[in-house]
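Worked example

This section walks through a single chain of length 274. The input is the sequence exactly as stored; nothing has been trimmed or padded.
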Amino acid sequence: MELIYTNKIVKGKKLDFSIADVNEVYEGSVGVLWEILMGEQIHVGADVQTDIMAQKAGVNKNTSVLDVCSALGGPARHLARKYGCKVTGLDATMKMVDEAVKRTEKEGLMHLVTNKLGNALDMPFKAAAFDIVWGQDAWCYVTDKERLIKEACRVLKTGGIIAFTDWVQSGNMADKEWEDLNCFMAFPYMETFAGYEQLLKQAGFVIIEKEDRSPDFAKYCHIYQDKLRNELKSAIISQYGAQMWKAADNGLALWVKAADEGKVGWGRMIGRKV
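Given that input, the structure is written out below as tokens.
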């Protein structure tokens, strides 16, 4: 196991997951399952957490926002609808982008929201194009977080804001547990809070806020597990089969256990480009 020490947390080796694996997940039934469990925003806390971060990042009708790894575009539409800002959603999965466009059209938000197919590691935008770069619980899928943060810095205007939440490694674990957790989600690896802070500073950001909300993450993991085992069980088995339900239940149980033990967590970071 390749060991990287970050504030006494031993980070596991990077696993062999690529953008193709993530596309396979979100173009299939697993992507549908996550929406069933978490809602169309597909992140912890749904609209409530989107609004908290919007207020902290200073979103208003005059800001241009880039949502990196935007999936179905739930946060983008919410921001546009509530704050009147222009939002560009960038995602690498064609099915997600197509569905985001359909939902944006249905809500009559095409004048504010654009959904674009593209790679977070080579963003198809000119430098200094946005006021805010935004991400919610999706950068854990990115294979090179250092390059992601540098790209975010490139497309931000000077003084612009980077604001994101993500699933992170918050404690030490055995090799097999690391692999099982990440393989269930198709994560190449999880960053740590300290790791993200270092990447932001190296890229040219000043940290405005860093907030560890790992206890909330554990609570949400239990909520998702309860929904899977009770409210949604029969519907999932009927539509996708008992094998898929069992695989989801086994994988989610791993995350519940790791969250309870403080090995995985979730939090928010906000920085300013200087």
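What to look for: Confidence is low (pLDDT under 50) at residues 1-7.
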